[in-house]
Specification:
Shape: globular
Number of helices: 8
Number of strands: 0
Oligomer: single chain
Largest sheet: none
Structural class: mainly alpha
Order of helices and strands: HHHHHHHH
Helix content: over 70%
Number of domains: 1
CATH topology: Arp2/3 complex 21 kDa subunit ARPC3
Radius of gyration: 17 Å
CATH class: Mainly Alpha
């Protein structure tokens, strides 16, 4: 009985540690992109980002349990908004809307990887859902036809950002030092 308790505690500690590392990495990528790569200054879509923090969500979704992907995404969004001073603001609402939309769609389609979709395909679909979720929230906050005029740009930007995120996720997963990819039916090599 005592060995099972010790093993159970080790698994919990390992899970909490991995989730914490994933959240911290997601926050770092979010801050990097927010302050060092302001795409909104170049592109016609205000606040446009590549979505590097979503890379963490994709890796967790593909290598861990879905519940952990939701915890990482929620924790990353809340903590990053606290650090940037946007908690309970429009950017926070957009992050929640995009994150929930993307993770919902990707979670539903996750069982189809790699049979139907690759990591890149799943990522592009997630990027499209993310942008649509953000625009839906923005439309809910400011209902006007002008908000919907961003839809073509948002969908167009989802293609390269989703491709980049999916490509990076594929590279990261192939190099993970633990068994996450194979243990939960992920696309990793099963170390």
């Amino acid at each position: 009985m005592k060995k099972n308790d010790e093993r159970s505690n080790q698994v919990r500690i390992r899970t909490i540690s991995k989730i914490s590392i994933y959240i911290a990495l997601g926050i770092c990528l979010n801050l990097l992109e927010t302050y060092l790569i302001p795409l909104g200054l170049i592109l016609p879509l205000p606040g446009a980002k590549i979505g590097l923090a979503n890379l963490v969500t994709l890796v967790v979704l593909l290598t861990e349990k879905k519940k952990e992907a939701w915890i990482v995404t929620g924790g990353r969004i809340i903590l990053a908004s606290l650090l940037t001073g946007t908690f309970f603001s429009v950017p926070f609402a957009l992050s929640i809307g995009g994150g929930v939309a993307a993770l919902t769609v990707m979670s539903l389609l996750r069982p189809l990887v790699p049979k139907v979709f690759s990591e890149i395909g799943l990522s592009i679909i997630g990027a499209v859902a993310h942008n649509c979720g953000q625009l839906a929230v923005l439309f809910g906050l400011m209902p006007s036809a002008g908000v919907l005029s961003f839809l073509p740009w948002a969908l167009l930007l989802a293609l390269p950002s989703g491709w980049l995120t999916g490509s990076l996720a594929r590279q990261i997963i192939s190099r993970l030092p633990w068994e996450g990819g194979s243990k939960y039916g992920g696309v990793g090599r099963g170390y």
